Structures are given as C-alpha cells and as structure tokens.
Amino acid sequence: MPLPVGNTSLKRLRSRYRLVVMNEDTYDEVVAFKLTRLSVYIVLSTLFVILVGLTVALIAFTPLKLYIPGYGEAKKAKEYEVLKMKADSIELNLVKKQEYIDNIEKVLKGKIVPPDTTMLKLKNIEKSRD
C-alpha cells in the first residue's frame, strides 16, 4: 500500500544529503556539508529576502530614487507649481506691457488717431468751487 503524498514530501524535505567540495588534483575533501532540502530552501529564501531588502533600502535611502520615472518629492512638486504660477504671471505681465508699447508705437507713427477729447462734456470747474 503506497504512503500518503504529504508524508513522502515531508520525508524528502528532511532527508539528509552530503555536499562535498573536493580538490580536483588530489581528490582531498576541502569542505563537507550535511544538508537537507528544507535547510537549502530556508537559506535561499533568506538570501532572497535580504537581497530584496538591501535593494529597496538602497533605492529608498539614496539619491538613486530620483532616477525612477515618475518619482518625485511632494515638496519639489509644490515648488514646481509655485514656480509655474510665477512664470505664468510674468508671461501675462509681459504680454500686457508689449500690447501697451505696441499701441504707443502705433499712435506715435500715426497709424491710429487718438480719440478727440474736445467733445467731452466736463463739469465746469468754476461752478463746482462755489
């Protein structure tokens, strides 16, 4: 009668194996390890977690994070927004001043005749003083 599958998998994980490192020229044992599959899985998983943790820490706590596309600090985003508003304000001011200069230039060249102000009805200044 075959053994249940769970039992054989557990036995395979706990079976002991021997890893021997030998000198190729003399066939002397340099190092010998007694391992199980479970211990190998644990060591490899631990190394993986440590490497991922070190990589995340390296990116998070060094300027390398600035090379990630779309990543930026909230403080800098606010600064960019303020600078953009200032630049827009300066641009609008420049456009208005340029329009003013263009209009003055047109008047001085005689392209636009200024409106006749002699026809305006003004209050008599002498009457208002009384």
From TrEMBL:
It comes from the Bacteria. Keywords: Membrane, Transmembrane, Transmembrane helix. The chain crosses the membrane at residues 38-61. This is Peptidase M23.
